[in-house]
Amino acid sequence: MDKQNDQSRMDRIVSLAKRRGFIFQSSEIYGGLNGFWDYGPLGVALKRNLKDAWWRDMVAGHDELATLAGAPSPYEMTGLDCTIIMHPQVWKCSGHFDLFHDWMIDCRESKRRYRYDHIHGRWASHRGKKVFVTTDQSGDEAPPDTAAKAQKFFGLRAKQVDEIEWAGSLESLEGAIAAGSVALADVLGPDATAPGTLTEPREFNLMFETRIGALAGDDDDRAFLRPETAQGIFVNFKNVLDTSRVRVPFGIGQIGKSFRNEITPRNFTFRSREFEQMEIEFFCKPADSAAWYRYWRDRRWKWYLDLGLTEGKLQLREHHADELSHYSVGTADIEYAFPFLNPGEFGELEGIAHRGDFDLRSHMEGKLVRQDGALVLETGADGKPRHKGSGKDLSYFDDISRERYVPHVIEPSAGADRGVLAFLCDAYHEDEVPDEDGKPRSRTVMKLHPRLAPVKAAILPLVKKDGMPEVAIDLYRKLKPHMACQYDEKGSVGRRYARQDEAGTPWCLTIDGQTLSENTVTLRDRDSLVQTRVPIAEVVDMLRDRLQ
Ligand code: GAP
After folding, report:
1. If you measure from the C-alpha of residue 415 to the centroid of ligand 1, how many angstroms do you get, rounded to a whole number?
2. Starting at the edge strand that comes first in sequence, how are the strands of the sheet with 165-172 ordered?
3. Would you say the CB of residue 333 lies under 6 angstroms from ligand 1?
4. Mean pLDDT value of segment 526-546
5. How do strand 222-224 and strand 368-371 relate by DSSP bridges?
6. Directed axis angle between helix 41-54 and helix 416-427, to 10°?
7. Could you tell me the distance, in angstroms and rounded to a whole number, from the CA of residue 96 to the centre of ligand 1?
8. Is the CB of 272 under 6 A from ligand 1?
9. Cβ neighbours of residue 502 under 8 Å, at least 6 residues apart?
10. 115 lines ligand 1 (CB under 6 A)
11. pLDDT tens digit string along 154-168?
12. Mutate-to-test residue for ligand 1 from 267, 348, 358, highest number of ligand atoms within 8 A of CB
């Protein structure tokens, strides 16, 4: 499939998401707010089902007495729900205050702001005039965008475009400036009409800042919206140990909102400024940490497959040493081939990081830095810690082996919104089905896993008479306590099937003349379109079994 097709497929997914109430732009009636998204009636159910599946499979439903396939030993799991605003020192010790930034660049002319690493450009010349033309578009859209900008800059008509001479192919502005082959004075900004309007790149901390209290004013009142849920778990490590009698190895799971003031949110919900994370911090003995890292990487990979993501569109990628975060001694990403990406490109769904003892030590001792391969306390010119830790003892005492140590942490960190987006993209299918007269009709169908589907079953009386609605309503009321289902009697049965296909409903139950005489209903399968007759008395148990 070429890029053009993939982008138009993405456009159709975005349009269905809006038309059917999966996802809306936040504050849309006021023109929307970039990087913020609302989930509509179908979307909220899909997202809740995804989070519930994660919570159940990873935390609540975990069997701590069994040794799961690939796990070095049995382990315990428990949960937490921490605040979004925490003590500012949390972010100083975690490294976010000093290090959680992107480089950005402003345009004095257009007043637009760009992520430095998102700008690409190439040299163009015409009749002795030379300029480095840039774009903030990505992939296949970038070259035509620079061509259009160069044409405008040189004041050429469309048929004169071939007169432009290009030197080299598109390269990153960041790389070209670092290499000294381009100066900002020669750069035509992505939305500028003259060169030299881009500012020097500046650091921009991604944490949203706020103030606590009505009399807020001085620096002590500064607080931050959390950029990850993980830190709430680390600072509660001792509380959980002291209150729940868990023993290492064990994990703490948390689902919650995180906030990042992304410079350029893009690609629908993929890079948002407000999003939800599903994170586990898994505490283990240092000597066993490599085996636990492998276990969690493989376990999380399998979770996406079990929920139906297409294996050929998923990739498990180990990070190179130079990609690792300041705390990480090993990270793998689970990535999905989103349709807005170029063929062969993948976007991150989840990261599984081996964080060593960085986090617990940071919250004990203060902000750490890596020096000659070891983590040491960062100190200022006065020799004092740059950011002081809590001073609390976060080590663990194993009362069986009589050992004391600071546990190592394995962190599977997934994005709920990116998960929803991947499942939406993967589920989206267009095919042809016969209509009521047997003629082929094109349909859009969301082939969501039944556990994720917002509505599990639709109950449809064939006609609004002859006692069919009464039987259908009775079945609806029997099914409703067990699963999300809908009663629908409006329009032709073909149109009602089409509505349910777009919502991703796996099963439709039709009440017809035979139901009244034989007490059976037609069960239509969304994906295979096979229709079977099922005794009405068996419907509830049958669908409950299938959902298991
Ligand atoms: N505690 C580690 C951590 O937060 P991360 O890779 O920065 O690691 C984890 O984030 C996951 O959170 C990502 O894999 C992604 O699914 C999600 N995520 C991160 N930034 C996001 C954003 N701006 N919009 C939507 N999801 C995001």
Report:
1. 6
2. 165-172, 120-126, 129-135, 187-188
3. no
4. 96
5. unpaired
6. 110
7. 14
8. yes
9. 16, 20, 444, 445, 446
10. no
11. 999 999 999 999 998
12. 348
Compute the average pLDDT of residues 314-319.
95
Q: Please determine, for residue 2, whether its predicted confidence score (pLDDT) is greater than 50.
A: no
Cα separation, 179 vs 175, in Å, equals 6
Q: Which two tokens stand for residue 227?
A: 């950029």
| Stated pTM of the model | 0.90
Contact 324, 293 (CB under 8 A): no
The SS3 call for residue 537 is: helix
Q: Mind listing the pLDDT tens digit for each residue in 358-399?
A: 999 999 999 999 888 889 999 988 999 999 999 999 999 999
pLDDT tens-digit map of 471-518? 999 999 999 999 999 999 999 999 999 999 999 999 999 999 999 899
Q: Is 277 in the pocket of ligand 1 (CB under 6 A)?
A: yes
pLDDT class for 215, splitting at 50, 70, 90?
A: low
Contact 374, 357 (CB under 8 A): no
Mutation test of ligand 1: which of 277, 304, 348 has the most ligand atoms closer than 8 Å to its C-beta? 277
Nearest atom, ligand 1, residue 415 CA: 16
Cα dist from 393 to 95, 237, 241, 258, 365, whole Å: 20, 10, 12, 27, 9
Rounded distance between C-alpha atoms, residue 503 and residue 48, angstroms: 15
Distances (CA, A) of 115 to 107, 136, 140: 11, 9, 19
Q: Where is 479: in which H helix or E strand?
A: helix 468-479
